[in-house]
Q: What sequence folds into this?
C-alpha cells in the first residue's frame, strides 16, 4: 500500500476502495439502526442485553487503546527518553480509540443523546458503569489535550501549542490515574453478576485482571500499530521515530513478557482463591486453558525470546498474537462465558449487521488515523519545534 | 475521631481494595436491612393452578399491548417463557416428577431489598420505595441495559423495537395502586389465593406457619427470605425451587456488596497514584540530573587533564626549541668567528709575504 499511496496520490488504492465500501455499508446500517431500533439490526434480546458492540467496541477498544498511557508513562514519568519518538503515534491511537469507543456507544445505548446524563443530570455513583463513564469522559478530554499540540503545530498556533506542551507531565499522571480506574472498572462491571458468568472467569480479581492485561494489551497494540505504520507511512518517519520504534519494540516486548507472567500468576491466584481447579477438567476448563496458555503464556515466552535475541520480526508476530488474546479474553468474559448456564437456543451470536457496524467503526478509525498521519507531525518532529521537548 | 468512624474510613480507603470480597461490608457506609414497613407478596406454588388470570390482570392494569394468543389459551405454557417488554409476569408449568400433577411458578420482578438493578444503574433510574416496590424512571434512562446484565433473576426486559424512546420494562408491584390503597392486579384477581399481599415481615411469618403446619406439603425454604439479601416477593413450594425454574445458587449476598470492594479502590487509586508517580518522576529526573552532572564532571576533568598535558608538552617543546635555537646560534657564531679568524690569518699571511718581497728589494739595492 505504501507504494500505491505514493504513486497514486489522488487516485484510489484497492484498500481505499474496500474501506469506502465499509463506510457506505456502515452509513446504511446506521440508518437502519436509528430508524428501526436495536431490534432491527441486532441479535440482542432480554437474556443477552450486551453483544459485540460492548464486547468488542467497548471492552476491546478501551483495552487496546491502553498504549497511550503505557507509552507516555514510560517516556515522561519513568524517564525512558528513548521511547520519545513513539509517544505521539501511541497518543494518537489512544485518542482515536477512545473517541471511537464513545462513537460506537451511540449505536449500542437506546437513547444516545442522553449519554451525558450520568455525569450532568442524574449521577448514579454506586454503579461501576458510572465510574467507567466518568473516567472515559475525562480521559478522552485528557487525550484530546495530549494530542492537541500535534494539531496546533500543524495549524501554526505556536503560543497555544507551547502552553499546552507545558502540561505534559500533569496530563500523563492524570491519564495513568484515569486509565487505572476505568480499565479495572470495565472488569468490575461483571462483579455484580456472579450467577451469570462462568466461575473460571468470574473472580473478585476481575478489576485487577482487566487493569494488568490492559498494560500488555496497550504495549502489544503499540508494537502492532507500529508494524502496520512502518509498512504504510515509512516515508513520513524521521530518525528520532525510527530509532525510538526499534527501542519500543524491544523494550515493550520485555515489559510485556514480565507483565504477562505477573498476569498468569494473578490468574493462578484467582483460581486458587475460589478453589476452581476442578473446573479445569471440563470443556469450559479446556477453553479457559486455551485462552490462558495459547494467548498469554505462549506470547509471554515468545516476547521473552524475541527480546533476548533482538528478534524484531518474532516480536511483531507475537504482538499480533497478544492483541488477538485480549480480544478473546474480553469476548470470553462478556459473551462466551457470560450466560453460560442458558441452553444453546437462548445464547447470543452477533448478527451480520452488528459485525458490519463494528467493522464500520474500525474503518472510520483507520481513515482518521491515515488522514492525521499524512498531514500532521506524528511520525516526525515539526521542524519549528525540534529539540523543544522536555 | 471515633474508633468506628476511623475503621470505616480505613475500610473504605484501603482494605476494601486489598481484599475485595472479604471486606465488602467494611467498605460500605451502612448496613441496610430493608424498609421496616415494606410490603410484599407471598406466592404459594402449591395453590397455583396455572389459570393465567394474573397475567391477564397484569396486562390490563399496566395497559400493556394485547398478546397474540389470548390469556385463556393455556397451550402457551408448554414452552418456558420469560418476562419481556410486553409482559411483566408469566406463569410457567413444570413437571418435577413424571406422572404427578404439574407445578406452576409465577415470575415477575422480585423487588429485592437491595436491588442489583438500582445498584448498577448509572443514572439512578431505579428506586427502592419504602412501600417495597422497585420502580423505574424512564425519563433519565440512557438505555445501557446494565440493569439487565446485573439482575440475578433476569427480570428486566427492553423495548428493542422502539427506535427513539426505548424503555426498560418490568413489574412495578403495581406501586401506583398500592399508594391508592389497592392490591396489585395479579393478587386481586387470583382465584385460588396463591398470592398473598402484606407486610414483608408478616408474610415471612405466614410462610413459616404454613410450612410448620403442613411439613409434608412444603419444603422448609422460603425463597426470597435471604436470596440476594432478601426480596419482597416470597415463594413457598412443595417441589424444589431448582425444579420449578428458580435458581438456588444465587447466594445471599446483596448485589451492592459485590461491587463495593471495587468502588472502594477508587479513593486509593486517586490518592496514591499521583503521589507515587510524581515521586517516580522526581526520582527518574534526579537520576538523569545526577548522571548528567557526573558526565559533565568527568568531561571537565578529562578536558583539564588534557589541557594540562598539552601545556606541559608545549612548555617542553618550547624549551627544546630554545635549546636547539641556542645551539644553532652558537654554531653560527662559531662559524662566523672561524671565518673571521681565517680571514685575519689570510690577511696576515698576505701582509707577511708583502713584507718579505720589499725586504729583498732593499737588500738588492744595498748590494748594488
A:
Amino acid at each position: 500500500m505504501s507504494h500505491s499511496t505514493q504513486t497514486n496520490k489522488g487516485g484510489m488504492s484497492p484498500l481505499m476502495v474496500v474501506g469506502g465500501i465499509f463506510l457506505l455499508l456502515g452509513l446504511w446500517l446506521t440508518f437502519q439502526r436509528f430508524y428501526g431500533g436495536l431490534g432491527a439490526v441486532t441479535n440482542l434480546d432480554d437474556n443477552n442485553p450486551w453483544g459485540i458492540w460492548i464486547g468488542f467496541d467497548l471492552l476491546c477498544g478501551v483495552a487496546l487503546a491502553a498504549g497511550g498511557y503505557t507509552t507516555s508513562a514510560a517516556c515522561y514519568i519513568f524517564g525512558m527518553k528513548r521511547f520519545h519518538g513513539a509517544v505521539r503515534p501511541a497518543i494518537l491511537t489512544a485518542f482515536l480509540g477512545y473517541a471511537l469507543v464513545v462513537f460506537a456507544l451511540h449505536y449500542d445505548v437506546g437513547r444516545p443523546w442522553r449519554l451525558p446524563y450520568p455525569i450532568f443530570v442524574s449521577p448514579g455513583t454506586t454503579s461501576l458503569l458510572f465510574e467507567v463513564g466518568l473516567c472515559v469522559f475525562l480521559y478522552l478530554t485528557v487525550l484530546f489535550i495530549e494530542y492537541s499540540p500535534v494539531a496546533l503545530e500543524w495549524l501554526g498556533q505556536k503560543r497555544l501549542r507551547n502552553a499546552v506542551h507545558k502540561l505534559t507531565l500533569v496530563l500523563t499522571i492524570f491519564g495513568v490515574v484515569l486509565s487505572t480506574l476505568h480499565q479495572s472498572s470495565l472488569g468490575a462491571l461483571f462483579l455484580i453478576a456472579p450467577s451469570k458468568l462462568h466461575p473460571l472467569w468470574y473472580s473478585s480479581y476481575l478489576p485487577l485482571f482487566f487493569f494488568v492485561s490492559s498494560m500488555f494489551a496497550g504495549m502489544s497494540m503499540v508494537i502492532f500499530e507500529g508494524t502496520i505504520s512502518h509498512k504504510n507511512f515509512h516515508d513520513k518517519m524521521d530518525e528520532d521515530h525510527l530509532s525510538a520504534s526499534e527501542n519500543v519494540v524491544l523494550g515493550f516486548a520485555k515489559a510485556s513478557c514480565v507483565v504477562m507472567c505477573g498476569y498468569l500468576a494473578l490468574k493462578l491466584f484467582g483460581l486458587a482463591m475460589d478453589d476452581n481447579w476442578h473446573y479445569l477438567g471440563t470443556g469450559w476448563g479446556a477453553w479457559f486453558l486455551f485462552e490462558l496458555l495459547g494467548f498469554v503464556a505462549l506470547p509471554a515466552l515468545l516476547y521473552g525470546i524475541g527480546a533476548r535475541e533482538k528478534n524484531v520480526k518474532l516480536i511483531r508476530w507475537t504482538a499480533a498474537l497478544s492483541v488477538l488474546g485480549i480480544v478473546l479474553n474480553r469476548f470470553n468474559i462478556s459473551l462466551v462465558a457470560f450466560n453460560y448456564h442458558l441452553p444453546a437456543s437462548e445464547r447470543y451470536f452477533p448478527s451480520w449487521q452488528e459485525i458490519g457496524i463494528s467493522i464500520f467503526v474500525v474503518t472510520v478509525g483507520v481513515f482518521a488515523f491515515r488522514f492525521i498521519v499524512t498531514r500532521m507531525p506524528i511520525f516526525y518532529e515539526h521542524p519549528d519545534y525540534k529539540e523543544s521537548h522536555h | 475521631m471515633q474508633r468506628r468512624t476511623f475503621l470505616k474510613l480505613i475500610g473504605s480507603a484501603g482494605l476494601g481494595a486489598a481484599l475485595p470480597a472479604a471486606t465488602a461490608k467494611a467498605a460500605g457506609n451502612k448496613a441496610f436491612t430493608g424498609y421496616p414497613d415494606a410490603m410484599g407478596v407471598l406466592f404459594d406454588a402449591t395453590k397455583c393452578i396455572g389459570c393465567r388470570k394474573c397475567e391477564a390482570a397484569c396486562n390490563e392494569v399496566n395497559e400493556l399491548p394485547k398478546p397474540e394468543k389470548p390469556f385463556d389459551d393455556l397451550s402457551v405454557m408448554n414452552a418456558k417463557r420469560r418476562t419481556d417488554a410486553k409482559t411483566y409476569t408469566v406463569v410457567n408449568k413444570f413437571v418435577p416428577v413424571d406422572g404427578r400433577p404439574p407445578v406452576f411458578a409465577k415470575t415477575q420482578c422480585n423487588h429485592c431489598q437491595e436491588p442489583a438493578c438500582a445498584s448498577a444503574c448509572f443514572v439512578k433510574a431505579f428506586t427502592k420505595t419504602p412501600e417495597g416496590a422497585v420502580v423505574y424512571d424512564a425519563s433519565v434512562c440512557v438505555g445501557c441495559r446494565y440493569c439487565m446484565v446485573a439482575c440475578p433473576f433476569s427480570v428486566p426486559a427492553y423495548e428493542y423495537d422502539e427506535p427513539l424512546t426505548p424503555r426498560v420494562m418490568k413489574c412495578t408491584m403495581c406501586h401506583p395502586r398500592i399508594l391508592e390503597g389497592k392490591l396489585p392486579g395479579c393478587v386481586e384477581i387470583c382465584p385460588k389465593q396463591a398470592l398473598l399481599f402484606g407486610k414483608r415481615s408478616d408474610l415471612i411469618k405466614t410462610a413459616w406457619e404454613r410450612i410448620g403446619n403442613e411439613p409434608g406439603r412444603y419444603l422448609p425454604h422460603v425463597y426470597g427470605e435471604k436470596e440476594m439479601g432478601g426480596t419482597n416477593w416470597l415463594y413457598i413450594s412443595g417441589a424444589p425451587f431448582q425444579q420449578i425454574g428458580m435458581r438456588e445458587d444465587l447466594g445471599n449476598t446483596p448485589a451492592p456488596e459485590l461491587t463495593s470492594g471495587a468502588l472502594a479502590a477508587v479513593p486509593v487509586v486517586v490518592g496514591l497514584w499521583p503521589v507515587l508517580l510524581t515521586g517516580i518522576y522526581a526520582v527518574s529526573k534526579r537520576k538523569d540530573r545526577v548522571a548528567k552532572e557526573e558526565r559533565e564532571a568527568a568531561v571537565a576533568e578529562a578536558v583539564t587533564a588534557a589541557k594540562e598535558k598539552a601545556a606541559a608538552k608545549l612548555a617542553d617543546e618550547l624549551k627544546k626549541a630554545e635549546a636547539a635555537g641556542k645551539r644553532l646560534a652558537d654554531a653560527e657564531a662559531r662559524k662566523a668567528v672561524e671565518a673571521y679568524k681565517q680571514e685575519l690569518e689570510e690577511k696576515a699571511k698576505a701582509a707577511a709575504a708583502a713584507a718579505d718581497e720589499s725586504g729583498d728589494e732593499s737588500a738588492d739595492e744595498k748590494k748594488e
Summary: The two ends of chain A are 35 Å apart (CA to CA). The mean pLDDT of chain A is 92. Chain A touches chain B through 60 residues (CB under 8 Å).
